[in-house]
Amino acid sequence: MKRVYLSLFFAYLFAIGAQAQTPTATPPATTPGNVSRVTYFDVLPGKTAEFTTFLRTNTKPILDEQVKQGLIVGYGYFTKPTSDGPGDWDLGVVVTYKNYADAIDFNAERGAKFDAISLKHYGTAEARTKANDSLNALRTVTSSMLVRGLTLNPMPK
Hints:
By secondary structure, the chain is an alpha+beta fold. Helices cover about 45% and strands about 25% of the residues. α2 (about 50-70) crosses α4.
């Protein structure tokens, strides 16, 4: 009887040892990063100076405050020196969030924070609406999309 128990004990130990040597799962090929909203604008002819003044005066301070409050990770602007024809984009903005939830889920609390920042900047909802109307007279949004950064992980050895 002792031999049976001893045999079962060693069989159990070997099973644990064999399980410990089982190779781990292959690591993922990529690691997801931050999520960005990329918006492309066609600045209307002759309106580039007015548009960039609007961005510097109104959009930049609002985005700076959103970064300061941790609502967004960062932002940036970029241009395209060539054109594919009339209506093509020539200036873009990228606003980066921590993840998809932050980029698309503007729940009541989060939306209230964004709203408070813009109201503080403009003073009133009417002034904000008037500013946005003037912005619409300077540019056309050609497209807007969400993108997610990826980090390529090293190949397993």
